Each structure stands twice: as structure tokens, then as C-alpha cells.
Amino acid sequence: MAAGDLPAGRKMDLEEATGIIGQMARAGVGGISFSAGEPFLYIKEIAALVKLCRQLGIYTRIVTNSFWAKSPEISDPLVSQLKQNGLCQLRLSYSRWHQKHVNGKNVLNAAQSCQKFGLDYFVSFVTDFSEEDDPYEQFLRDHDITFFPEPVIYAGRAASFKRRRILTDYQANCCDMNPYLTPDLDMVACCDAGSHFSETDFFYLGSLKDQPPEALFAKSETDRLYNLIRIMGITPIASFAGMQSREIITYSKCQLCRKLFNDPGTLTRLRGEVSRLEAWHR
């Protein structure tokens, strides 16, 4: 993933990336997702890495905004090549914000190419659940495109978006917490929103420049608060921390996570009372 709010034009050297994937395979990693910024800017390198992952038995996914799929004549050979190289899934990002810069037909072309060549795919429909998104959702339905709504994460550039009150069910909001690696070899324990926890660096695991992947994964898997996020969920933790129930349900999962773990005082308290928190269950 790319770190920071603005693109810096950095990318990992191909030889270095190849070596890291070998390390990941030896560490028991079962899947790798090539994610934001835009992986298709470096399609030759990504295709080679996908092929290597197949040889090592690693599941692969590419997350893309489909800028490249301007026509079936362009998207078909690219998708065909990736399928032959062993790509397991293509995730197509789509929203009213993405489509300010990328024609919605590009997403349609990419999805239809996946259907044509038998490549698993889905559209990640990023939304704040407002009526403004209705025509974008209808476009996907009209073309029978597989999609799943994804709540917008108010981090990075999206931090400036007006936040809508969620007011949904009182859900546990558990999170799998898949680690992310930046081109600079920094690893964070959870998605790109976690890399923006600038007040606490709560999710920062360390750098592959200093430690092997096994050590960073071990840190992720043994942190007691991380494990509570996975199995207990963020909502009960927020209640334990003193947030009122009626306030908790106005936040999406990632927003609630930021409110808890990017606050130094709250984080210090949770760290200090983690044994009590672990025993605090129904």
C-alpha cells in the first residue's frame, strides 16, 4: 500500500519485492493483496509478482480503480494475462468520488473482462449511504455487476469529507486486521486507515529493514488489544472506555477505532486495564 495523503511517486524495486515475497512465503503468508495507490501503473511488475506468488502457493488480489480499462480491447488482454499468471481476484474500487476521475464504463469493462476470462472479481462500492450514491449503485445493478457496499473510511484524502451519522445497529464491529506493507517497508497491523493514526502510531509494527516478517507478524498476533479487536470487537471496547451507547452507533467501525486508539489518553488507559477488559464479557 502507499502511505501518506499525497502520492510521492515511490515504488518498491522489483528485485526487492521478489525477495520480500519469498520471505512472506517462508513466514507462512497465504495471501497478498496489491493495493492503493494504483497497482496497474506498474502492470508489468505486478504481473511478474503475481506469477511468482502462484509458484509459491500464495493467493493474490489486485485492488484497482480501473483507469486502464478504457475499452474491452484494452481490458481483455490485461485481464487475460493476469488470469494466466495466476491472479486469484480483481477488486474494482468504485464510488462517486472515484468516478470524478475515472469513467464508470471503465469499471464495467474491467468487470466484463473478468467474466469473459473466468477471473474472480467484485466491485467495492465505497459509499456514505446517501441518496447521492443511488444512481451509482443503480448503474452496477443495471449491468448485473457483482458488488458489495463498503463504508467510506474518513482517512487520508477522505478525512475532509463531511461525515454522516450512521445510527445503525449496536454491532460488535470485529475486524480481521490484515497487515499492510508500504513501499518503504514499514508494516502496519491494519488497513491504510491505521497508517494515519499519527497521535499514537497504534498499528505500527515496525520495518522489514530492521526485523524479519515473522517478528512483525508475531507482534501483530500477540498484542492483547489487537486480539480483542479481532474477537471482542471495537464496540464493546468503546463501551468499556466510557463512550455512551448513543454516541457509539453514530460511528462506522474505522471511525470508532480511530476515536479509541488514536487518542493517547484512551489508549494508555486501555493498555493499563487490558486484563480487566479481557475478562469483561457477557
Describe the protein in words.
By secondary structure, the protein is α/β, with parallel strands linked by helices. The chain is 41% helix and 13% strand. It has helices spanning 14-26, 43-55, 72-85, 104-117, 134-142, 213-222, 224-231, 234-240, 245-248, 253-261, 264-272, 274-278, and strands spanning 31-34, 59-64, 89-94, 120-127, 147-151, 180-181, 186-188, 204-207. Strands 1-2-3-4-5 form a five-stranded parallel sheet, with helices on one face. The mean pLDDT is 91.
Largest beta sheet: strand ordering = 1-2-3-4-5
How big is the Rg? 20 Å
What's the helix-strand series? Answer: HEHEHEHEHEEEEHHHHHHH
Structural class by secondary-structure content: alpha/beta
Quote the distance from N terminus to C terminus.
37 Å
Task: Tell me the number of helical segments per DSSP (H or I, 4 or more residues long).
Answer: 12
What is the beta-strand fraction?
5-15%
Helix content: 40-55%
Overall pLDDT metric: 91
How is the topology of this model organized?
Elements: H1 14-26, E1 31-34, H2 43-55, E2 59-64, H3 72-85, E3 89-94, H4 104-117, E4 120-127, H5 134-142, E5 147-151, E6 180-181, E7 186-188, E8 204-207, H6 213-222, H7 224-231, H8 234-240, H9 245-248, H10 253-261, H11 264-272, H12 274-278
Parallel strand pairs: 1-2, 2-3, 3-4, 4-5
Antiparallel strand pairs: 6-7, 7-8
Key phrases:
282 residues, alpha/beta, TIM Barrel, 2 domains, five-stranded parallel sheet, three-stranded antiparallel sheet, 41% helix, globular
